[in-house]
Amino acid sequence: MTDHLVATVQKHVPNIPLKIISQGAEALVFETTIHPYSTTPSLHNNKQFIIKFRPPKPYRHPKIDASITKSRTIGEVKFIYKLEKLGIAAPSVISADFPNGIIWMEHLGSSLPDGNISSLKNWLWYLEKQGDVTKCVDERVKSVCNLVGELIGRLHLNDMVHGDLTSSNILLTDDYKVPALIDFGLSSFSNLPEDKAVDLYVLERAILSTHSVFADTYNAWLLEGYETIHHSVEFKKDGKVKYKDTIRRLEDVRLRGRKRSLI
């Protein structure tokens, strides 16, 4: 099935070497060494690029499928463009083919010593596998978690919701010190505390499921950073109010989650 999908995207980007690095229900993500129109692009990483492809869904009527694909691809590009304007760390869009569901974008992150991409999840896993507990909860990890919280807070303060906020969708750049967000296929614009609380809850549960031993510490540091940006001078007008509203709603979301678990 994957070979068929690779062949499909290859029709739209002929003669471009592709290496599949992720496959989800919504899209496939490829890595390539080719920039679509420049040999010397002004990007931090000018040797690797990402191509995201939304393949056709055979269970949908072709016209409906084409419309959905185009709409979602446009929506994702608009979301990323808004992030760039706001200075929120995320990959820049290089090129897009809306009808065919293709987004060519900047490659963020790097390889960890074990060869895995430097997502927050993989980085924390790498530290945990070293067997030194102190390195899993030292000041460096606290700083990264705080910065992740601040990044999410800045996103929410601009009434933007990620929609799939897991530790896999947070990449670490600059020697694993600076976080950036990726994968905005489910992202949306919303000023509702409920939507922002669900974002936080999804990340909280993702941390708990993948880093159970240190989850309470990591999540506390994430919320610490989240609170810090809400109380900053930059957002002094309504940051504190928005923080209280979202955290209050987060408690409700947690309660609903516990009830579902019991059932």
UniProtKB/TrEMBL annotation:
GO CC, any one term: chromosome, telomeric region
Record's subcellular location: Chromosome, Telomere; Cytoplasm; Nucleus
UniProt main location, coarse: nucleus
EC number in record: 2.7.11.1
Gene Ontology BP, a term: tRNA processing
Entry-linked PROSITE patterns: PROTEIN_KINASE_DOM, PROTEIN_KINASE_TYR
Enzyme class, broadest EC rank: transferase
Keywords: Activator, ATP-binding, Chromosome, Cytoplasm, Hydrolase, Kinase, Nucleotide-binding, Nucleus, Phosphoprotein, Serine/threonine-protein kinase, Telomere, Transcription, Transcription regulation, Transferase, tRNA processing
Protein kinase domain location: 15-263
Pfam families: Kdo (PF06293)
Gene3D superfamilies in UniProt: Phosphorylase Kinase, domain 1, Transferase(Phosphotransferase) domain 1
Catalyzed reaction equations: L-threonyl-[protein] + ATP = O-phospho-L-threonyl-[protein] + ADP + H(+); L-seryl-[protein] + ATP = O-phospho-L-seryl-[protein] + ADP + H(+)
Top-rank taxon: Eukaryota
Function (record text): Component of the EKC/KEOPS complex that is required for the formation of a threonylcarbamoyl group on adenosine at position 37 (t(6)A37) in tRNAs that read codons beginning with adenine. The complex is probably involved in the transfer of the threonylcarbamoyl moiety of threonylcarbamoyl-AMP (TC-AMP) to the N6 group of A37. BUD32 has ATPase activity in the context of the EKC/KEOPS complex and likely plays a supporting role to the catalytic subunit KAE1. The EKC/KEOPS complex also promotes both telomere uncapping and telomere elongation.
Family: Belongs to the protein kinase superfamily. BUD32 family.
PANTHER family noted in UniProt: EKC_KEOPS COMPLEX SUBUNIT TP53RK, NON-SPECIFIC SERINE/THREONINE PROTEIN KINASE
Subunit composition and interactions: Component of the EKC/KEOPS complex composed of at least BUD32, CGI121, GON7, KAE1 and PCC1; the whole complex dimerizes.
Protein name: EKC/KEOPS complex subunit BUD32
